[in-house]
């Protein structure tokens, strides 16, 4: 069993918003959130005042403890206001991916029983279509009168007794397999994770963090947005990823800490555009959400001349479980570091569930106060992910050294990660089987230098159909990151005697160098 080299830390039993904004009043005039494009700025004082006003307005509209509000937004300064207004009322925030189609969003709105939805003008058409098929009572649009009215009040919000075990965030994850499920994260979970990463991350109030990772993603929401606000630091928000925009933000806004994912690391290491910008303010880069090779980590660190670290986690763990400490001397390229404080980690043989020796691969199991409460309305799925002893089975295969430093080497689970976005093969397979010319289908991850992985479909045809037609059929029905990027026609899908797709056979086939009937888009 592995533990943190730093020992345990104190985790207070306080509501999440109170904890995150604890230092805000003492830094009222300091920028908290800056829009990279417009320069629009919210100070820490503005943030506190905005949270109070929006909370009061929502309460006046009947929103209260246990109610759900969906944030269908890109990264904006107002994201933090809306999130903490809901959290301060004892409500639950459903952070929705703005790339979701109306149908996909409708499913999450209905499943979470969201009452209100906040969006932006560019997404309002899809938002209204999705809301019409759900229980959503009202839609507020940032930049229009509906949201502005929430800020126009001098009323005080009601005092709400929040239990640390109350759910505060409901991101959707496919977990180790299957369709997306609402991950119930409590105030205690999120407060704990902020406390747990502090000895490893060491962000101070003078730091300026790059907010390009989407806040609907647990990495961006906790490690970037809320950790920086907790430290009274500044977050520079970017509503969409644009590589030259990232470089410009670092140069113009004095970014000191860049939290990124492997595709951005690849660009920072190799894109010629980097040479046209002054990036000397940058002293720390953190990569997470997907594996990164030691070679690419070192290449990026050397080019930028700054500290580079990796971390690891999952939505069900709020999210961080491992992180290479920020302090010089702790680096170990390719590793995601040792466990965070107040947690236990064990690696087990996937077949026997017996612990494996250091240096041998095993499934990573995690236990601690940051582990989710469960999946919304799906205790059966939760029991498959968290066992009776409280161990969260991550579905990832790793190798741990004697001192607990972990390297993630493979995935036991079936999820495909496209630029850190989760794609469930079962969802795409179900969609493919609705095509009249497809008799059977399986979807697996296909290695891709830019995205890390992309979905590839293996299909058995029962009628005339071209692979580009299949690719287009899926593209019209799913978010862009879920699209089939490669497709191959086969005679049959390998399956076990019980009928389960032998996905590993296809994965090995995909990794083997060979020619095939493949369409790449």
Give the helix proportion (percent range). 25-40%
Radius of gyration: 23 Å
Mean pLDDT across all residues, rounded?
93
Characterize the largest beta sheet: strand count, sense, and whether it forms a barrel. Answer: 8 strands, mixed
Q: Give the low-pLDDT segments.
A: 514-521
Assign the CATH architecture of the largest domain.
Answer: 3-Layer(aba) Sandwich
Broad CATH class of the largest domain: Alpha Beta
Number of strands: 26
* Proportion of beta-strand residues: 15-25%
Count of spatially separate domains: 2
How far apart the termini lie comes to: 45 Å
CATH H-level superfamily of the largest domain: ANL, N-terminal domain
Helical region count? 15
CATH fold category name of the largest domain: Rossmann fold
Structure description:
Strand 5 (116-119), helix 5 (124-132) and strand 6 (138-141) form a beta-alpha-beta unit. It is built from 15 helices and 26 strands. Residues 514-521 have low confidence and may be disordered. The chain folds into 2 domains: 16-398, Rossmann fold (3-Layer(aba) Sandwich), CATH 3.40.50.12780; 416-520, 2-Layer Sandwich (GMP Synthetase, Chain A, domain 3), CATH 3.30.300.30. It is of the alpha/beta class and 521 residues long.
């Amino acid at each position: 069993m592995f533990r943190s080299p730093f020992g345990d830390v104190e985790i207070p039993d306080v509501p999440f918003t109170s904890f995150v904004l604890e230092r805000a009043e003492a830094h009222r005039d300091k920028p908290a959130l800056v829009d990279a494009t417009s320069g629009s700025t919210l100070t820490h004082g503005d943030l506190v005042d905005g949270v109070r006003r929006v909370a009061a307005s929502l309460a006046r509209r009947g929103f209260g403890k246990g109610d759900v509000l969906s944030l269908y937004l890109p990264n904006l300064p107002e994201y933090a206001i809306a999130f903490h207004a809901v959290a301060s009322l004892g409500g639950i925030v459903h952070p929705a991916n703005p790339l979701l189609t109306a149908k996909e969003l409708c499913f999450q709105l209905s499943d979470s029983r969201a009452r209100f939805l906040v969006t932006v003008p560019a997404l309002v058409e899809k938002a209204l279509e999705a809301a019409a098929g759900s229980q959503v009572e009202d839609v507020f649009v940032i930049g229009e009168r509906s949201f502005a009215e929430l800020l126009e009040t001098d009323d005080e919000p009601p005092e709400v007794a929040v239990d640390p075990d109350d759910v505060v965030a409901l991101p959707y994850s496919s977990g180790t397999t299957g369709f997306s499920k609402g991950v119930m994260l409590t105030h205690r979970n999120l407060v704990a994770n902020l406390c747990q990463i502090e000895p490893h991350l060491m962000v101070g109030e003078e730091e300026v963090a790059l907010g390009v990772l989407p806040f609907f993603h647990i990495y961006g929401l906790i490690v970037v947005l809320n950790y920086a606000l907790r430290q009274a630091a500044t977050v520079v928000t970017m509503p969409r990823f644009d590589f030259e925009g990232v470089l410009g933000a670092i140069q113009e806004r004095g970014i000191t800490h860049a939290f990124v994912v492997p595709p951005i690391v690849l660009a920072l290491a190799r894109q010629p555009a980097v040479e046209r910008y002054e990036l000397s303010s940058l002293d720390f880069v953190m990569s997470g959400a997907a594996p990164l090779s030691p070679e690419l980590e070192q290449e990026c660190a050397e080019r930028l001349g700054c500290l580079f670290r990796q971390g690891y986690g999952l939505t069900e763990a709020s999210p961080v479980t491992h992180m290479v400490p920020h302090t010089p001397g702790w680096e170990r390229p390719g590793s995601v570091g040792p466990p965070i404080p107040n947690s236990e980690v064990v690696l087990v043989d996937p077949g026997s569930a017996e612990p494996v020796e250091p240096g041998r691969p095993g499934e990573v199991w995690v236990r601690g106060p940051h582990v989710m409460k469960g999946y919304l309305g799906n205790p059966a799925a939760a029991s498959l992910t968290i066992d009776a002893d409280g161990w969260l089975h991550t579905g990832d295969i790793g190798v741990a050294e004697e001192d607990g430093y972990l390297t993630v080497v493979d995935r036991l689970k079936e999820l495909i990660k496209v630029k850190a976005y989760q794609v469930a093969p079962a969802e795409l397979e179900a969609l493919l089987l609705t095509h009249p010319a497809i008799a059977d289908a399986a979807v697996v991850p296909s290695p891709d230098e830019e995205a890390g992985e992309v979905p590839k479909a293996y299909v058995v045809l029962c009628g005339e159909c071209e692979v580009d037609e299949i690719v287009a059929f899926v593209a019209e029905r799913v978010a862009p990151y879920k699209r089939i990027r490669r497709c191959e026609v086969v005679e049959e899908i390998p399956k076990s005697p019980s009928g389960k797709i032998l996905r590993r056979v296809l994965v090995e086939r995909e990794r083997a160098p060979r020619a095939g009937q493949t369409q790449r888009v």
